[in-house]
Design a protein that fits this description.
Elements lengths: L1 H16 L7 E8 L5 E11 L2 E8 L2 E13 L2 E5 L7 E4 L1
Antiparallel strand pairs: 1-2, 2-3, 3-4, 4-5, 4-6
């Protein structure tokens, strides 16, 4: 449960940083877990064909996820293959 919270918190930190650019790159993340403890780490986003590889390193814990591209289309997000036009990503 705590790990899922950390990943969710990382997504909220990551999204504003990539709102207006290709989301690939390295990002610093920091936050507070449900139990009140602070954490910090890094997130690396790499494009791998039509998806993204997202690698979180929080303390000594590493998690790797696969992401799809997302961008606004009218008033909603449109999910699809990774591209330079992405303004967000969805990671599982």
């Amino acid at each position: 449960m705590i790990f899922r919270t950390i990943i969710s918190a990382c997504a909220f930190v990551l999204l504003p940083a990539i709102a207006f650019a290709d989301p690939t790159g390295s990002y610093k993340v920091a936050g507070t877990s449900e139990d009140g403890s602070k954490y910090q780490g890094t997130v690396k986003v790499l494009r791998n064909g039509e998806t993204y590889i997202v690698d979180w390193m929080i303390g000594k814990n590493e998690s790797i996820g696969t992401g799809l591209g997302a961008k606004f289309s009218g008033d909603r997000f449109e999910m699809g293959p990774a591209s330079d036009e992405d303004t967000a990503i969805s990671v599982g």
